[in-house]
Each structure stands twice: as structure tokens, then as C-alpha cells.
Amino acid sequence: MKKIPVIIDCDPGTDDAFAIALAKASGRLDIRALTPVSGNVGLEHTAPNALALNDYLALGVPVGKGADRPMIKERVINLATHGENGLGGVELPAPRCTFEEDHAWDVIYREAVAQKGELEIAAIGPLTNIAITLLKYPDIKPLIKRITMMGGAWGVGNSTPYAEFNIWIDPHACDVVFKSGIPITMVGLDATRQTFFTAEEMDRLLASDCAVSPLLRGIWEYTRAQKAREGRESGIILHDALAIAAIYCPEVIHTEPYFATCEVRGSLTEGQTVVDLPNRWKKEPNVDVAMSADKEKLYALLQEMVAFYQN
């Protein structure tokens, strides 16, 4: 079976680490590069984390540094969710590989040309790198087969009442992407929240030792402790893993085509992905929006991931 060429644009990030590990284990994705961006933590952490994950997971792909701030608004960092180093305090071995000389947007363009229209992008962080690519290389648009993004919500947000974190961080970048004409799958909070894994499910998933246990268990234990400190239900949502899974296993989500836009100026709604569910605007759909997710299917894929790293 032919593998899907994909660039993972990421901000690792605890759930990014799970997602990248899943991508490698799938056997269905031909990972062409990692392009880190500032998001969950600053680029000073996400870039070294991407480089370390490249080595730790034996990806052997180019890692091109991306944007260290949003396109227009001020940078916001969320240390509480992912820890100061972005990986929940897990320290990976020092990588032997080095960064590409080219920036993320140049790496993306290079790979898009090389893949002759077959390249897909997994955008599991803020969309800054992707927007810069589209603005610098407008001729890239027909060369990108699809962008699958973890971000947005057609219902309730998590950074504001209506905005999801990845979009709220850089709404102007999302606006550029939504207007690009490239096929887009939006895996937002409405779908990812349906894949909440309980502490018992996570303990069962990670019970057996595998090559990446120190990373995955370390992230899970950090998340468990954080939830306890906050008095919240113990468990985890692996948002980014669902987006990765949707690329090679589309049945893990159910999508419907809608016209969507991003609010870039609202004093109360900045970063909201406005999805025209009632079709009031009568505009051509530009985004395949994830309406629901299959938690059991995602869990089965994660079990396959663990088994992969046991071999």
C-alpha cells in the first residue's frame, strides 16, 4: 500500500509527541519533515523538542525551524498544560541530528514540489508556518493535496468561550489558510473532546513496556498529576493524535462540508472558527469539519502504536 507523504507542522507539546509517535507507528504515513512552530511553548522549546523526537523515534527526517511568534498578535505561552519544556518535564536524549538550514516554509515548499501534488500537511499547532508558506509561495496551493488541522471548534472553545487554543494563538494565520482554496479537514474540539481517555484506559494502554514507554508514560504521569492539582477528572484528550489518525484512517472521524471563517478582530470572539452550520451565507464549503469522533477506533490505533514499539 502506497504511503501518504506528509509534513507534520507541530508545537511539541505533550499531545504532539503522542501524535508523532502514532504517525511513525502507523506504517501508512511517509513523514517527510517536522516543522516546529511556537505554540504550546515557545519555539525555543518546540524546535529542540521536535529535533529530539526526530532522533528518539528514529524518524530520520528534516527538521526546519518555523515562526517564533504569531503573524500579528502578541505571543501567548501556556506553560500550565504542557510544562515548562513542553513535554511535561520528560527529558529526551540529546539529539544527534541538526536543524535544516532552510526555514519551515522553505522546507514545506521544497517537499510540496518534490511530491508533485501528493503532499499532505498535518497542522497540529498554530497555523503560522502554513500561512507564511502560502504567502511566500502562492504557487504552492495546487501542490498541497490536503491540510488536516487540529484546531478550532464549531461549539465551545477552550481558550475563550468560543476559541480553541491553536487558532486563538494566531487567528490571522487561520484566516489565510481558510481562504487558500486548499482542501482542509478541521479536527476541532467538538470531535477531540469525544475521545477523552480515563486514567484506567491510559494505564491499560501503557501497561506493557515498549521502546517509547519513558516518553509516553512520562507525559501521562505529568498530565495525571496536573489534573489532580487542579481537582479535575483524571484522564487525557490526545487532540493531535486524532488529527494524525484521521489522515490515514478517515473513519476515525465523521466530517461534513461547511463554509468556515476565522474571527480575527472580535473583542469577545477573536480566534473563533465560525462554521456556517445553518448555511445562512449560502457560500461554497471550504472546510470538511469533524462533527464527531470514534473513541474506540482511536484507542485501537493507539494500541497498535504501542505494539509497534514493542517489536
TrEMBL record:
Pfam families: IU_nuc_hydro (PF01156). Keywords: Glycosidase, Hydrolase. One of its GO terms (cellular component) is cytosol. GO terms for biological process: purine nucleoside catabolic process. Signal peptide: none annotated. It comes from the Bacteria. One of its GO terms (molecular function) is purine nucleosidase activity. Residues 6-299 form the Inosine/uridine-preferring nucleoside hydrolase domain. InterPro entries: Inosine/uridine_hydrolase_dom, IUNH, Ribo_hydro-like. This is Pyrimidine-specific ribonucleoside hydrolase.
